[in-house]
Amino acid sequence: MSKQTSVVARQVMWNRLISVVEEQAQALVRTAFSTSVREAGDLSAGIYDTQGRMLAQAVTGTPGHVNAMADAVPHFMRRIGVENIFEGDVYITNDPWEGTGHLHDITVVTPSFHQGVFVGFFGCTAHIVDIGGRGFGADANSIYEEGLYIPIMKLIEKGEVDQTLLRIVRGNVREPDQLVGDIYALATCNEIGHRRLVDMMNEFSLESLDEIATFIMDNSRRATLERINALPRASANGSMTIDGFSKPIELKVKLDFEQDRILCDFAGTSGLDKKGINVPMVYTKAYACYALKCAIAPEIPNNAASLAPFEVTAPINSIVNAVHPAPVALRHVIGHMVPDAVYDALDKILPDTVPAEGAGTLCNFQVSLRPRTDDISDAAQIAAQQAAGRAEVLTFNSGGSGARPRLDGMNATAFPSGVMTMPIEATEHTGPVIIWRKELRPDSGGAGKYRGGLGQYMEVGAVEGHEFDFQAMFDRVDHPARGRKGGSDGAPTVIHQDDGTPMQGKGKQFVPHGRRVMLEFPGGAGYGSPKERDAALVRRDLARGYISAETCITEYGFSESEVKAVLDAVRAGEEVS
User: Fold this and answer.
1) Which pLDDT band holds residue 383 (cuts at 50, 70, 90)?
2) How would you classify residue 534: left for phi > 0, otherwise alpha for psi between -120 and 50, otherwise beta?
3) Looking at the record, which segments are called Disordered (predicted)?
4) What's residue 462's pLDDT?
5) Residue 541's domain spans which residues?
6) What does the H/E/C string look like for 377-444?
7) CA distances from 408 to 58, 514, 527, 538, 541 (A)
8) Residues 190, 191, 192, 193: what is their CA dihedral angle, to the nearest 10 degrees?
9) Is the residue at 18 inside a domain?
């Protein structure tokens, strides 16, 4: 085989590995019990060499999971011991510091053997709806309150399932069938990956992955360093203020572009919060690396070598480097803001490269439903109460993303997490919750040469006979997304009950029978001066209902007659351009 043919063959094998882990991820989507996996894609999947280095990741999944999981396998190797790795084993943990950031993520790692020889690992992570404790939310004061902790251990040894572990799990969570089903789904998707890997190794007559691993690591590192070394040697500081739990949080970051590396230091960031919004370092690193890689080397495949030149540090017990036993259940609320803080600095080094700020954190909430407990006398209401059951319903939603240097922001689209917004039908299928309204929120995207993406309206209630606790996990209530280069800020988050009772952006809050929760999710910020926006795009936005007539006049300088002409054309069914 010629040298050139050998290189081509290795590239084919690399692409095949990416296909293998994508099939692994899709198997998890198809078999998972939790709607957060099936409907939102809150998961990750990857393949690792015998040293625990990530070789390839699935396209399906979130940066927080994938990049955090890149550091997880070496922890498994250290805890299990290389001498205790056997064919037929499956390992498990939800350790926030050695997994992916909080107890609600279960990571399963499976050693892969080919012809009796250990050749690598498959790993996957999924967010599960309930892990016991206080439930998914920010209310805990320490990790001990947040749910069941599973240290790195063997779920299966040489093909034998640890039934004692599963009994402990079942006895400590609210949705035992769902959780155990997800654990088996995670193990199964790793097995699917293993089977496809064996097929590939047989096809290419491989005895190990060592040669392809060297090829992947060498090429990824070289390509990443070429991008980094082509950038100016410079430093810049970035910062942003976000809501926090009971007081605002300051995120501060310094970027240093050096030879063969980029340093990202969060010195000066706020300290630990008393409630569960703290972020383990592994999750901060995941999103800081993701932000930098998106801006500098987006098309280079994600693996251990392409991530290595991005070095992230933060003071111990800052809110972005929380250590045990800090509460971390909602680490994503702060962690998803990390890219916007990094981009505030990066924009000063590489102008016209990064977007304006967006909603940042996902607009998730969990509803804990139960039979109503208020005094009732009507026979129909009593019957409904007696028929009511308990349920935990978690739904993933998104505000708008920030406008980009040459494009509008995306409506109701998550950045940086990338998870999908869950359909109403899937949410209502999981329990007695009713989504009365879900639609785009006009005027929520910041005005600009390029407009910020729109947030959403949602109206949430329960089936007759139920009351519920509403676990809010929002930000951008008091600190909306900031515009860039003269663009306007996005709209803030708004939350209250339908009778006007105000609600907090974070924390578990009781909603009595018959009441609804009214939500307005935040919009992304604008990029560039609104006066520079193409008039045709303004007319299009007005015709589609993305902006109001008032915004068209006050922000974009249209006259009342111009606005009337567009609206008349819409009513007449005419095309607006």
Assistant:
1) confident
2) beta
3) 483-507
4) 96
5) 535-571
6) CCHHHHHHHHHCCCEEEEECCCCCCCCCCCCCCCCCCCCCCCCCCCCHHHHHHCCCEEEEEEEECCCC
7) 28, 39, 8, 12, 11
8) 50
9) yes
Quote the tokens at residue 519.
């939500």
For the cut 90, the answer to whether the pLDDT of residue 435 exceeds it is yes
Domains in the chain: how many in total?
3
365 with 418, same domain: the answer is: yes
Residue 244 maps to a domain = no
User: Domain check: are 421 and 507 in the same one?
Assistant: yes
C-alpha distances (whole Å) from 164 to each of 147, 170, 237, 399 are 18, 10, 51, 42
Q: How far apart are CA 468 and CA 368, in angstroms?
A: 5
Question: Is residue 2 pLDDT above 50, yes or no?
Answer: no
Residue 289 lies in a domain: no
Dihedrals φ, ψ of 250, to 5°?
-105, 120
Residues 75 and 175 grouped into a single domain: yes
Q: Give yes or no: residues 480 and 539 share one domain.
A: no
Task: Provide the pLDDT for residue 450.
Answer: 98
Name the strand (E) or helix (H) holding 565. helix 560-571
Q: What are phi and psi of 393, to 5 degrees?
A: -120, 120
Last residue of a domain, one of 197, 221, 245: 221
Report, as an integer, the average pLDDT of 157-167: 98
Please determine, for residue 1, whether its predicted confidence score (pLDDT) is greater than 70.
no
**Domain's final residue, options 191, 221, 251:** 221
- For residue 532, what are the CA distances in angstroms to 354, 408, 446, 555, 576? 19, 13, 14, 11, 20
* Shared-domain flag, residues 208 and 150: yes
Identify the pLDDT of residue 267: 98
Asked if residue 470 belongs to a domain, the reply is yes
Residues linked to residue 470 through DSSP beta bridges, in sequence order: 367, 509
Whether residue 442 is found in the same domain as residue 542: no
Q: How would you class 210 by CB atoms within 10 Å of its CB: exposed for 0-12, middle for 13-18, buried for 19 or more? A: middle
- Same domain for 521 and 544? no
State the maximum Cα–Cα separation within the chain, in Å, rounded to a whole number. Answer: 86
Burial-class residue 59 by CB neighbours within 10 Å (0-12, 13-18, 19+). Answer: middle
**364 and 488 both lie in a single domain:** yes
H helix or E strand, kind and range, residue 461 = strand 456-462
Which spans in 44-175 are helix H? 63-69, 72-80, 163-170
d(CA 262, CA 391): 46
Which H/E stretch holds residue 110?
strand 105-114
Whether the link from the prior residue into 325 is cis, omega within 30° of 0, is: yes
pTM: 0.95
